[in-house]
Sequence to fold (85 residues):
Amino acid sequence: MKNYFEEIKLKLKDNIELENVEIVDNSHLHKKHKFYSPEKFHLKLIIRSIYLNSISRIDAQKKIMNILNEDLKTKIHALEINIEK
Fold:
């Protein structure tokens, strides 16, 4: 799991100018949800990026979602994105 989170960080850092990215695994909070699957993650990204703060919030989130597009299809069930100032 840790290696997978490092892969996500690398994908983001390779495609966006970031100062910091933290990944919080909130999967355990969703175990009783109807569509819960132990093979998929519920993640929260906490990102500090001057670049992402310079564009609209929607464009910043679209950029992140495009980078993680394949992961969202296969390994990530839910993604919360928090872009700090």
Notes: The helical segments are 2-15, 50-54, 57-67, 69-74. The domain at 2-84 is CATH 3.30.300.90 (GMP Synthetase; Chain A, domain 3). The longest strand covers residues 76-84.
